[in-house]
Design brief:
Number of strands: 0
Order of helices and strands: HHHHHHHHHHHHHHHHHH
Number of domains: 2
Length: 318
Amino acid sequence: MLRALTRGFMANVSATPRELLLLVHTLLDTHAPGTTATAPREQHKLAVAAQAKGKAKAKGTKPSGEAIMADFALQMLLLFLKHGIGARGAKQGQVAETAVAQEGDQAEQGSKQKHAGVSGGDPSRLELLAPFVPVLARCMREHSTAVVTTALKCLAILCRYPLPNLRRHTDELARRSLSLLRSGVNASSPLSQECIKLLTSLLHSNAGWEATNGQLRALIESSFTDLEESNTQATTFRLLRVVLARRIVLDSVYTVMGRVQELLVRSQHASVRQACHGALVQFLLEYPLGPKRLRQHVEFLLVNLTFEHPTGRVAAAR
């Protein structure tokens, strides 16, 4: 029923963006957790719930009414951010229906496109979106994995825009995301992936997150557990490219790049080799390297010009 309501709201040509966003904000403000901080134990419970989500569907408990309504509002907000409701017309209902049916599967594509619903140069639209930052931060205290995951998706998109109040919440958002990553959630789970995407957006954008070395080390160690995992590859390498571009000097980065050059030569997957190639070129050309480290990487590539498999030899030669 809530999906049908979402389709109806998004297809309603008489509703203005302001009216729809006001509805969504009211729902979230009513049903999101309060301002009391979530204890680490509760964060751990959420992480465990996310890790056991598949088994929980067979056995588990039903989400609370508050969580259901919060998720309903978040899904509408996510559709607005990804697909927009500014261009009204006969096809708008079809777009909304398709988007709801996909249930966010196109998140990675959405990150590569401009969002039709929000313009970075539209102050009136940004003014409408700014109040969502604190309420989405509250949603990250929810015990429902679905609510937290969708809230993270919305926040990752909002971080790309110059919202006036975003800087006041970046430390809080980063701290909670890192807490979830370090709570034992599988790095390939949807919750972990959305945490990594949000943290990547905070690093990449001018959001004011002054990450400490400890936070960055925890992020890198939690994110780069399996560089060949196809479901997480795009997210992982995007984070790596952002870290390299920021020239963040940590031992963990050098360790990861050692694994990247190994994968460049040994992986049998073209997509992995391509991602490794881009990251390694950026690393060698832009990242701080002493003469000894640079010589080690160049010697590795020269040695592997005679690698046993032709794909490895070609990768090393590029």
